[in-house]
Amino acid sequence: MRLKNSSAFLLLVLGGCSGAEFSEPPMPPPSRDERADDEDQAPRELAGEARATGEDRPPVVMLSSPEEGARYQPGASITFEARATDPEDGGLPASAFTWKVDFHEGGKVYAFVPPISGMARGTFTAPAVEGAEGPRWYRIHLQVKDRHGNTSAVFRDVRAQEPSGDKPSPVHVR
Predict the structure, then answer these.
(1) From CA 40, how far away is CA 62, in angstroms rounded?
(2) Is 78:112 a contact under the CB 8 Å cutoff?
(3) The whole model's pTM is what?
(4) Residue 94 three-state SS
């Protein structure tokens, strides 16, 4: 994999977030579904993967952006956004969120945005990739942890837009 314009490799916007942590908190191991990188599989969201301690229930996560089935063009900004609630305590703050983004290409996985906590919304730029082999997509992971240590994890795939003979039209990825 070789990136065009590597200076645009990563743009991460910490919208309205101050004091974000850049340490690497533990992420759950990938589920069997996450490891399946078959080209014919439709993008999907992992729902219901949650771990609870004791009688307390895990957070409920709503991943609002990107939308299911979203596609990107090289150079496009991709925004990720979510909210979460704890069944016992209500809405959870951004400090409960840990995001990471992986780039998948032809059966290989590359860390693109390392785990980052303290934000409910962010943006990154999908750079152009020269000599791409096989299907390409970004998998945006989110883990949310409540004050009792219960976690829920979801992910969303954003696949590359298929090339066409016509001049590509702009794609808005929310």
Answers:
(1) 26
(2) no
(3) 0.66
(4) helix
